[in-house]
Amino acid sequence: MPDAAPHLERFVTDPDLLPVARKIAAGERLSFEDGLLLYQTGDLTGVGALAHHVRLQKHGLRTYYVASRRLSYTNICYTHCQFCAFQAKPGDPRAYVLSAEDIVRELEKPESRGVRELHMVAGHYPKLKIEYFEDLFRKVKAAFPQIHLKVFTMVEMDYYARNSRISVEAFLDRCVAAGLESCPGGGAEIFDEGIREQICIGKKDAETWLRVAEICHRRGVPTNCTMLYGHIEKPEHKVDHLLRLRELQDRTGGFLAYIPLAYQVEDNELGRTHEIHETTGTADLREIAVARLLLDNVPHIKAYWVMITEGLAQVGLSYGANDLDGTIVEEEIAHRAGAKTPQALSRSELARLITEAGFEAVERDNLYHEVPQALPA
User: Fold this and answer.
1) How sure is the predictor about 96, in pLDDT bands with cuts at 50, 70 and 90?
2) Are 362 and 326 in contact (CB under 8 A)?
3) 192-204: per-residue pLDDT in tens?
4) Are 42 and 73 in contact (CB under 8 A)?
């Protein structure tokens, strides 16, 4: 096999980046110092070229999307995250809790036709216990056995297990028996404790998130993983976060995909108390590329169009991403904080975005199995 190093080095203009290019060409794992350099170099196109090389090695031009539906079973939350505009307190006119019947009715609506994945995350509400979730999952699976249930951040699962006065293991086992199949990756925010104390006071520490994720993986429940960026964090906090994810993946192999989440600045306390600007296109592309290079053991990297716009997500496919996420149908959390993107995209629109960017659009299920025959868009 020819040496790939000269091929990659010609895309790099920063001499400091050349050793990283050689490591990537040789298939070597990058270090913490390499990660810092990827964030600090001005050679973004060089970083992108390295990430694209790895993406092509892993997936070729194949780029995934899924027919998905987002719902939040409640927006009532007793945890105070400074970056959140979604949460409501009891008595707030916006506050709601959905019953299992409410969620089944939502899935019966025409806009939910063809949905393969129900993605649910929500607030921390003391009145909800394990019995609520068992009833919810059983009724949804009875009405829609073909829909994959992807529910709970790791922090949610820890909260509702404690609220139910049972262990996380017991809570997870009962939820799986009722129909839970995987978990999304939210709630990780930034693992650095000093930053967490400033942006998500009261939310459980990083070790709790990682511990619950490991419990899921050990019990055969796959999850995604995320990082919230673009607020008050620094490069070293992001590298630390990514390497902690990589370390856990080394042990369990349970992460399906990583999603970089761009902080949305509007209508939340963090945006009012700190001078924070919307993330730029270059910052968004760098996060995708760095993740592809540092998370060498996480198979899929998403360009999350909801937070970075459809057009930039297309570009992200050439910066390491191989997944454009899903149709969504209705997204609340990012849009409450100021996201300007649509509430939904059709499957045909997602496929068009992928093919127009020069990639092969592949409809998938939640576990990245290719859908044999796509349903009408």
Assistant:
1) confident
2) no
3) 988 887 777 666 6
4) no
Q: Are 345 and 365 in contact (CB under 8 A)?
A: no
User: Residue 333: is its pLDDT beyond 60?
Assistant: no
Structural domain spans, the chain: 5-55, 61-363
Mean pLDDT of all residues in the chain?
A: 88
Structural tokens at position 124: 């921390």
Q: What are phi and psi of 332, to 5 degrees?
A: -105, -45
247-294, pLDDT tens digit by residue? 999 999 999 999 999 887 655 455 555 566 688 999 999 999 999 999
Give the side-chain half-sphere CA count within 13 A for 124.
20
Q: Please name the residue ranges forming H helices in the chain.
A: 5-9, 18-25, 32-40, 44-59, 100-108, 130-143, 154-163, 168-178, 193-199, 206-218, 235-252, 269-273, 281-294, 305-308, 310-316, 333-336, 347-356
Type of residue numbered 5: A
Q: Side chain identity at 179, as an amino acid letter?
A: G
Return all residues near 298 (Cβ < 8 A) that are at least 6 apart: 225, 245, 246, 249, 255, 256, 257, 258, 291
Prediction pTM value: 0.89
Please compute Rg for the chain using Cα positions. Answer: 20
CATH hierarchy code of domain 61-363 = 3.20.20.70
Place of tokens 């009715």: 105
